[in-house]
Structures are given as C-alpha cells and as structure tokens.
Design brief:
about 190 residues; Rossmann fold; 7-stranded parallel beta sheet; 7 strands; globular
Length: about 190
C-alpha cells in the first residue's frame, strides 16, 4: 500500500487508548512511508493522527470542507490540504484516491465513510482493502450486527469478508497489505 484513507473521530473519546492507537497508527504509517489521507481536522483523533504522522516525517494530505475550514478546524501543520464543498465530495476523494481505507473509533461521520467504502467494495467500484481498527472491542457490536446481516440473509458471507477487522495496528496493516481483490460472482 502506498496510501490509505483514515477515518476517525473529531473527538478523542473517553478512553486514552483511542488517542494512543491513533498516535501508533500515524507513527506506523509514517515509518512505512504510506501516505495518509484524512479529514483534514486538527481536533479529536483526526488531529492526534495527523500530529503523529507529521512528527515522524510521513506524507499526509487533508481533505476538508469549506464549512469546517472556515470554523478553523483545519490542521495548521498539514500543508497538502484540499478544500471541497461537501462531505460527499470529501468522502469520495478520500476513498477513491487510496490503496486502502482504515476506520478507527468515531461517530456518525466515521460510520458513514466506512460503510460507503464497504458498499463501493461490494459493488466492485473499490477494489482495495477496507479495514476496521477495533480498539478495545469498540466495534464488537457492529461486527456482531454484520454477522447478523449474514445470518438473516441481507448480506452475503463473501461481502461480510470485505470488512477486515483487527485489534492491533500492525495486524490490521499486515492483513490489508496482504489483501487481494477477488471478484465474487453473486455480489448482492
């Protein structure tokens, strides 16, 4: 992988482990010289991630909306900043311009971005790995829901497999690096 989009919260959450893992992810990606594309923010896990990438000399690009930039939420240390009109345009640039997607703990926005990437992967419009960093089991209920979707016939098992989850940064990056696109015959 040469580049990944990282989706994560504009808040840090209430457990210090979230920020610790964002720092570790940023450091690891920088050390592997993997360009990070992120939401451009200076706050929350986004800001922690960007700080770590910058501190370790890694390449990073922010994609932020005019609205958020006007609120002075853009990361001042990120010089490669793309300013767009809408969240939809932001999401599209982040997903389609990368060799993979990693979602860390976050809220509605992170979920929107993660499921957009999975939907595009299911439709064969995104043929790269879609990873979920399941810090301290944060996403266990969501992963159980994905399994329930398979159980109830709303999601094919092959498509459930498109969501690569791991509890550690290294395991997730290694699994994503080993990903090989496989077209499934019946994708819906």
């Amino acid at each position: 992988m040469h580049s990944v989009a990282v989706f994560c919260g504009a808040n840090t959450g209430n457990d210090p482990v979230f920020a610790e893992q964002a720092t570790l992810l940023g450091k690891t990606l920088a050390e592997r010289n993997i360009r990070v594309l992120f939401g451009g923010g200076s706050v929350g896990l986004m800001g922690v991630l960007a700080d770590a990438v910058l501190a370790h000399g890694g390449p990073i690009t922010g994609v932020i909306t005019h609205q958020l930039n006007d609120l002075e939420l853009g990361h001042p240390g990120v010089h490669d900043m793309i300013i767009v009109e809408s969240m939809a345009e932001r999401r599209t640039l982040l997903i389609k311009g990368t060799d993979g997607v990693i979602t860390m703990p976050g809220g509605y926005g992170s979920m929107d971005e993660h499921f957009e990437a999975l939907t595009l992967a299911q439709l064969h419009q995104y043929r790269k790995p879609v990873g979920l960093l399941n810090v301290n089991g944060y996403y266990n209920p969501m992963l159980a829901m994905l399994d329930r979707m398979v159980e109830k016939g709303f999601l094919k098992a092959d498509n459930r497999g498109l969501c690569i989850d791991a509890a550690s940064v290294t395991e997730l990056i290694d699994r994503m690096s080993a990903y090989e696109y496989q077209a499934v015959k019946k994708w819906l």
